[in-house]
Specification:
single chain; about 120 residues; mainly alpha; Arc Repressor Mutant, subunit A; 4 helices; about 10% strand
Amino acid sequence: MIDINIRKELKSGVVELAILSLLKERDMYGYEISNEIDKRSSNRLNVKEGTLYPILYRLEEKEVIESYWKALDGRGKPRKYYRVTSIGDRYFYSYKEEWFVVSNIMRDILIGEEEEC
């Protein structure tokens, strides 16, 4: 496994898309989102609170996601859960399509660079 530091600007967009993808599957609370990203990325994309919550708040302000409080089985301290809104559905699919287009363009550019070496 290669351990690389992903630039802050790039990581923010990647994490935003990852969050939306997870929330399309089911409602989750912040810590759960962070753990799931870590797990699915084989711990290559570690998302700390300082990265996660500003993105969640920004998505909430844009009405892409919404939050609600829920106690597990009616017991214990309530957790703040997030879910994708109908605006968020459209936003997610558009963002996902952009991601595929850009990643394919960059792959073609970078592969071309390797062939020149």
